[in-house]
Amino acid sequence: MIEIKQVTKKFQDKKVFVTALKHVSFTVEKGQVVGLLGENGAGKTTLLRSIATLLTPTEGSITVEGYDTTKQPDEIKKRIGVLFGGETGLYNRLTARENLEYFAAMYGLSKHETKVRIDDLATMFGMRDYLNRKVGGFSKGMRQKVAIARTLIHNPDIILFDEPTTGLDITSSNIFRQFIHQLKQDGKTIVFSSHIMEEVSTLCDSVAMMHKGELVYHGDLDALYKTEGSNDLNYIFMSKLVRGSEYHAS
Ligand SMILES: Nc1ncnc2c1ncn2[C@@H]1O[C@H](COP(=O)(O)OP(=O)(O)OP(=O)(O)O)[C@@H](O)[C@H]1O
Ligand SMILES: [Mg+2]
Known about the structure:
By secondary structure, this protein is an alpha/beta fold. The protein has one domain: Rossmann fold (3-Layer(aba) Sandwich). It has helices at about 45-50, 75-80, 95-105, 110-125, 140-150, 170-185, 195-205, 220-230, 235-250, and strands at about 1-15, 15-30, 35-40, 60-65, 65-70, 80-85, 160, 190-195, 205-210, 215-220.
């Protein structure tokens, strides 16, 4: 379970303060898949980084499985897997297998556990053919798959993905989506940001919509469709943004 309580995050950029998150509160229950929606600069990455203990809220607090992100980051790091868009965190000079072994060692997995886990992940992602090749020569999609495997090497209960399918081809995106289904069946809690409405509507139980640092909606997707009288998430999202800013302007 993730509890976000009245989180505000301000960045100081020279003498200018940028408020990336404004009093954001919501809870993610265990086993839920939550889609984080918002325009560029809405605060999605900032929120994910804050949950991942990589940023400290200026105000408010976040707990993950009851642990506070600022007071007990190590407890949280053990339990989460994170992947941020563009940053694969892989070493080009190592093979895919060596990269995965390296991260497995960081999480204290035994040699045997590591081997079994890498085998499983390689099969799941269709990475067998290039497991022993150096990551430096990989295509974007190949790299992304290894990065996703790295995120999951220690079998975390909570997974945070920032725009995980950006740059992936249709096949790789589909593999990723199937994988989310699988993780959901395994009872994992997943929060991911995306600009692809269809991805969110097919994979998520609930959505959190952000607009200029504020949460304009959080809740169950089915309930949202019902109250809006539409199944068109793109349309709902756009109208929420308009209504959200009207609401906050008045
Ligand atoms: N380290 C930083 N220093 C200064 N400002 C920052 C920093 N990180 C984020 N911001 C600002 O916070 C706001 C939210 O940024 P964030 O990256 O969270 O948006 P996002 O929703 O992930 O956008 P995108 O869809 O483009 O990835 C933006 O105005 C951004 O410029
Ligand atoms: Mg972002």
